[in-house]
Amino acid sequence: MELLPEVESAVDALFWDRADRPKRLAALQTLLAAAACEPGVEAIRAHGGVDRLRKALAWDDEDSVDAAAKVLAACSGSTARGPGVRTFVFRGTGAHAHVTHAVRLRETDYVEGGLGWRVWASGVVMCRELIRRTNEGSLDVRGADVLELGAGCGVAGFLCAKLGAKRVTFTDYLPGLLANLDASVALQAEDTEGGDAEGAEETFRVHHLEWLASDPALFAEWAERRPMGGDGSCAANASANDEMVRTRALPSDETFGLIVGSDVCYEDPLPRALAATVARRLKPNGVCWLVLPVRAWPNETGAAVIARLVNEFERAGMRVALEKAPDLADEEYEGGTFVRHDGGMVSVFVTKRANER
Fold it and tell me: Same domain for 61 and 75?
């Protein structure tokens, strides 16, 4: 089909050109034409188009919403699932492939949760690696006070608790995501003998954390340029956001010995904001571990994005080590919303000496 080569750029336009009505309408028409055949639907799915289309349903442009809904209808199936409770079973890798842990949590939808609405491929990779590293002793989770950045559905944090973490603090920046994490914390209480809600509340906390606020100059620069929800298409509103910041902000003086995050570097100005946040929240001699897809941005390769992130960490006085992370198997990318990136995935380890600030 002649339109197939244009699908990727059309999907990208739903994000990068979302504020330009003629361009986003043109992109939607391209996707609608591509969705007329199965190869076109598969191409839309493969390039993450279902993600973008769901978020387009929250736009205030009736023509765009109508077109997005029609494309989504053609793409319905396993990738069109809505909110619900799901159980993920994770196995270790290598010599620890026999070790399994199940995590039950709630996924939300795009309108409420933005990009954090569901568990993504990098979260699955992090969980498998958590099992391996914990069993090998290369990462000590037992007794740790863990902070999960950009927690989304919180899959890595919930697994950390199963691996022995003393406390897990989930953070994100949308009211819908915090409410969804609250629901998942309640599920953990249900899964304990006797439904120990008090124990779950002691183990898990859910707080608001805006990374840009760790760098006041950056926050001021991007206050008007970066709309609520990152791409501005979630259901968050100013009053709900203000209430969340007022009542659920992570205390400014709290630091953590272990910080984790997956797929948390996906647009500007996040490299600098992430570095500022980790510098502020990581305890001396602590470890921050991120699992990231090596994802290309417009006019920037995935490798260049990772290098820029590393540079920001080093500028903030921290030490960084990179390791190639194991990717999902080919079949795990088929028929779903997971998107494979040519650069695969990478683990980023950040540390700070006791005398570093």
Answer: yes
CA angle 131, 137, 140 (to 5 degrees): 80
State the amino acid at position 59 in one-letter form. W
- 352, with CB counted inside 10 A (0-12, 13-18, 19+), is buried
CA–CA distance, 55 with 95 (Å, rounded to integer): 41
- Taking a C-beta distance cutoff of 8 angstroms, is the pair 98, 92 a contact? yes
Closest CA to 157 of 196, 197, 136, 188: 188
Residues 89, 66 within the same domain: no
Whole-number pLDDT of residue 190:
86
Distance CA 347, CA 325 (A): 6
The answer as to whether 356 is a domain residue is no
Q: Is the pLDDT of residue 231 over 80?
A: no
Question: Which domain covers residue 72, as residue numbers?
Answer: 4-79
Let me know whether 8 and 127 are in one domain. Answer: no
* pLDDT beyond 50 at 233: no
Q: How far is CA 226 from CA 231, 325, 335, in A?
A: 7, 30, 32
78 has a pLDDT exceeding 50: no
pLDDT for position 96: 82
Predicted confidence (pLDDT) at residue 169 exceeds the cutoff of 90: yes
Tokens 């390791």 correspond to: 323
Strand 345-351 to 282-293 pairing: antiparallel
Residues 233 and 92 in one domain: yes
Burial call 141-160: b when 16+ CB within 10 Å, e when fewer? beebbbbbbbbbbbbbbbbb
The reported pTM is: 0.79
AA letter at 89: V
- For residues 40 and 92, state if they share a domain: no
**Is position 357 within any domain?**
no
And the tokens for 20?
């330009």
Query: Could you tell me which of 345, 215, 222, 218 has the C-alpha nearest to residue 281?
Result: 215
- CA-atom Rg of the chain in angstroms: 20
Would you list the DSSP string of 281-307?
Answer: HEEEEEEEEEEEE---BTTB-HHHHHH
